[in-house]
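Long-time lurker, first post. I've been practising inverse folding by hand and with some scripts of my own, and I keep getting stuck on stretches where the structure tokens seem ambiguous. Below is the full token string for one chain I'm working on. Before anyone asks, I'm not after the true native sequence, just a reasonable design that respects the backbone. If someone could post their per-position residues I'd love to compare against what I wrote down in my notebook.
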């Protein structure tokens, strides 16, 4: 196979991780960038199959910082942003009980210290605000008025169009077959058609990130896990201005969508990277969780459902940084359901680290932290990813 082209930076994956990284690299002056996407369009997998929710109050402080920065970006898109992006700030209500409620109170305090609006509401105020919660049992709720729902397809398109306008190139339908190395350093990417020489390969392959890493001899413990989303038929009593409501104690949430509700039972089944099939048994899990958590909506009829993959790490933090063994190989992976909210801040962090800018930070996300992790050791990550 002959070498047909070369690029300083190759980004593998045109989802939120890769698109936002390309966007910020170009904003910082990089131009010789090629994005390789295995599908014919961007956003076929995780980046286009999520709940579109912007949530800032999360259990991990390092992710909360990036979530706030990401939400701030959405509220103040650059003047040259290429496409309109609707961000409906209807807010969020995170319900808790017992020790879980105490944990939510601590998370809210941490959020306020970072400048995120987060109020503690008693059950009665919460139920008056969203009347279908009248029969729901919980000790209190955290109200975050700057959370909401974003148009994920427009947002993803914006990152890509802006990057292309500044010189980045995208190749769709381009499947990576291998990573070439020379003296322990990345030297190129092998596709079905050619070898593309490169100084830096950025692994933003989502559920495929672990497999891609192994092609380069780089390993990080990533777990793709399936999660289902369900949408009801239109419901006359649903107020489209409701916030999204997440019952933290039972692991289930809903939000207005298409005149009805979008619901999620927060299922988490590990599986290899793929186009995940739906499991009919999850509908039963959802029904059981709704009956227990939100009796006021227990009788809704489901119109459609789908599944997507969230890629998790053992400690619940992202993987962003240079590989500890393979020079020139950079990770932007393991976003665990937070990729939409943190997309801009992740892209900026990755671009800073790749270009070694003075503002580079984020050592807590470095893949080097897994170097001493025992092969059989597993720490369950927080389950708050969307």
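-- Answer (accepted) --
I ran through it position by position. Result:
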């Amino acid at each position: 196979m002959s070498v047909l082209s070369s690029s300083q930076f190759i980004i593998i994956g045109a989802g939120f991780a890769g698109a936002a990284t390309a966007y910020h690299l170009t904003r910082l002056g990089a131009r010789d960038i090629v994005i390789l996407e295995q599908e014919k369009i961007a956003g076929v997998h995780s980046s286009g199959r999520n709940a579109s929710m912007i949530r800032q109050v999360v259990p991990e402080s390092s992710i909360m910082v990036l979530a706030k920065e990401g939400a701030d970006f959405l509220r103040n898109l650059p003047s040259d942003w290429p496409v309109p992006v609707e961000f409906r700030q209807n807010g969020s209500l995170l319900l808790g009980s017992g020790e879980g409620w105490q944990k939510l109170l601590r998370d809210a305090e941490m959020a306020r210290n970072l400048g995120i609006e987060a109020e503690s509401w008693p059950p009665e105020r919460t139920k008056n605000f969203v009347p279908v919660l009248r029969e729901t049992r919980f000790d209190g709720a955290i109200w975050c008025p700057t959370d909401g729902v974003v148009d994920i397809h427009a947002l993803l398109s914006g990152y890509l169009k802006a990057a292309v306008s500044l010189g980045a190139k995208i190749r769709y339908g381009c499947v990576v077959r291998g990573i070439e190395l020379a003296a322990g350093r990345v030297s190129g990417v092998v596709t079905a058609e050619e070898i593309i020489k490169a100084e830096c390969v950025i692994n933003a392959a989502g559920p495929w990130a672990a497999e891609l890493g192994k092609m380069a001899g780089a390993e990080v413990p990533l777990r793709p896990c399936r999660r289902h989303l369900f949408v009801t038929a239109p419901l006359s009593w649903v107020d489209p201005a409701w916030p999204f409501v997440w019952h933290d104690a039972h692991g289930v949430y809903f939000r207005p969508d298409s005149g009805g509700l979008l619901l999620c039972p927060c299922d988490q089944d590990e599986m290899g990277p793929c186009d995940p099939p739906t499991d009919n048994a999850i509908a039963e899990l959802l029904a059981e969780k709704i009956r227990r958590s939100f009796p006021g909506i227990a009788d809704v009829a489901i119109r459609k459902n789908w599944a997507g993959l969230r890629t998790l790490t053992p400690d619940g933090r992202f993987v962003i940084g240079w590989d500890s063994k393979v020079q020139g190989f950079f990770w932007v992976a393991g976003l665990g359901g937070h990729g939409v909210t943190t997309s801009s801040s992740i892209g900026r962090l990755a671009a800073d680290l790749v270009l070694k800018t003075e503002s580079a930070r984020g050592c807590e996300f470095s893949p080097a932290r897994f170097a001493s992790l025992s092969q059989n050791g597993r720490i369950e990550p927080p389950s708050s990813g969307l």
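A couple of notes from the structure itself: Confidence is low (pLDDT under 50) at residues 374-380. The CA atoms of residues 147 and 353 lie 28 Å apart. Happy to go over any region you disagree with.
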